Amino acid sequence: MASFFGSLFVFVCLAATAMAATAPAPPYYIITNAETPSLNRPGLTPVGKKRAEDCIPAVFSQLNIGFILSCKVDKDGEEGLGCPVANETATPLAQALGLNITYCGTGEESNDDCVHDKIHAFLKASNQSALVVWDATDMDSLLENADVNDAGLDEDSLGTHADLILTVVSGKRVGQSSMNCTRLDGPA
């Protein structure tokens, strides 16, 4: 009888290991900052504030987010000038979920592996999803530094449409969709 339970234990452990090895990695999502005023004026527009305060928390609170990553201005202050509005966009969701925002710098003086390393470390240790909220003017660098296989992705549309959500699983883009914010997003 003891060997039966021993064999059963080994079988259960092997099955659990096999299931864990084949379980898909949780997705992570990438969005840009919400709408900003023209002529490089600071902050979010009224529409951007509504997106950040109402729409983004409603959309992403349903997606099991356990980690939020955003950008910060690089050490020499020349890159990442849109990061303050990316952070302003991420803050209401972080507060609603009780999460802190983690940051990576942008530009020449920053660690290019920061985004990739922080996202993958979180996803490896968790079954929750992650959200990256980034400066809309720096999406090319983000996708490169996050090692996103962006074949077929229109990076220009991602940086110019505050309603787009890029879904990534295991480094591959698996979807691009609208937030569908009522009275904020027009027909696609």
From TrEMBL:
Keyword line: Signal
Signal peptide interval: 1-20
Protein name: Phosphoglycerate mutase family
Source organism of this protein record: Mycena venus
Recorded superkingdom: Eukaryota
Keyword Signal: yes
